[in-house]
């Protein structure tokens, strides 16, 4: 396994999941502040008020990245820090400006996501993503950030996982703002697409010409449970409303005809105006792909209880609008602590499919990783155990997960797929949305009582892999 010299090895985070300091330096609430403070929405009533306290500990976090040898860091910007209640807030931007400078000093390329789900609350109050004006507000915000940081950012990504924003936020309601309205969800998906196109175009006018422009999608690698025509059709439907609803317009093919047919009973799509698809098809330098596990689907005949084992909360409405005759049967194990199946072949197949359907579009793995119940060993008390206070965090399964997925990516590259970088999710344990702090995805363990950081075994392993040019230390 050898990788190109300029291949990016990174780790990723998101503003609401790590920053804390929810009311500091002028920041006002986003939909995730409101949602997490609403009883019953997030496990154990956890909120992002403090999170990993990265807002105060960012210097130490950047030092850890440098020690790990990361060549890139993917983070997101909090819209309501930069434009609290719509007013420009220089103190909010200054935080990111100092962070970017510190990264560059260490030779770490900043990969900036403008939107990782934390819509300013006042924009949700005005209608949120189902309201067309939100897309224009997003483009204005992108320009503000571009003007402030545009001379220093390596890659700009407009949105992280618009599928989650639209369908978990407005259809199943397990994410903020917690609405369950399929028409609102499809409308939101379109306005997120539009927001991406408007922001991508506006940014190019204000940032360095060398900057790359991107978006990150959580593409579902959908597999039918059998080769039967009805299961294949179930896979086609889910692929349309989870993947091609974004890939189509963003990569210049417009909305797929089968998606419009499958959802015709829900909406006539009259919210798409003349010229929108052209706006959305703004040129992309690289497409970000987040991959965790494959999605297994089967035709549902309505006779037996419908299976919905795709990691979504039991009893919640389905996020898959227009797929009422599809079920999501349990997949063979093993699983992560999220209950997500572990299967690296899905990543390889997904990359090959993207390369086949959209040749010439470079790809980047912008998230890949796993939550496990890591074994924390406090060695301070045991004789010969590494000294007082020494702590080890053993996470062999995370190492295997990362190793297998990096190998799968490498196989796809060997078959001709142009992959430019790999980002582990996540640098730190953090606020895992509806699961609060109960799920840990980090390379670095966070003690939420003290804020203390401890490198897990996987962090040392990843450091060694990067130092060896992408070769895992125990490779045959
Ligand atoms: C992604 N799903 O979220 C996000 O980009 C991260 O912020 C998050 O922490 C990470 O993956 C792990 O969950 C997803 O239900 C959340 O399909 C849910 C789903 C997909 C991605």
UniProtKB/TrEMBL annotation:
Record-level GO BP terms: cellulose catabolic process
EC number: 3.2.1.21
InterPro entries noted in UniProt: GH, GH_1_N_CS, Glyco_hydro_1, Glyco_hydro_1_beta-glucosidase
Native source organism of the sequence: Actinomadura rubrobrunea
Binding site for substrate: 17, 116, 160, 292, 425, 432-433
Keywords: Carbohydrate metabolism, Cellulose degradation, Glycosidase, Hydrolase, Polysaccharide degradation
Protein name: Beta-glucosidase
Residues of the active site: 161 (proton donor), 367 (nucleophile)
Gene Ontology CC annotations of this record: cytosol
A Pfam family annotated for this UniProt entry: Glyco_hydro_1
Transmembrane parts of this sequence: none
Catalytic activity: Hydrolysis of terminal, non-reducing beta-D-glucosyl residues with release of beta-D-glucose
Magnesium recorded as keyword: no
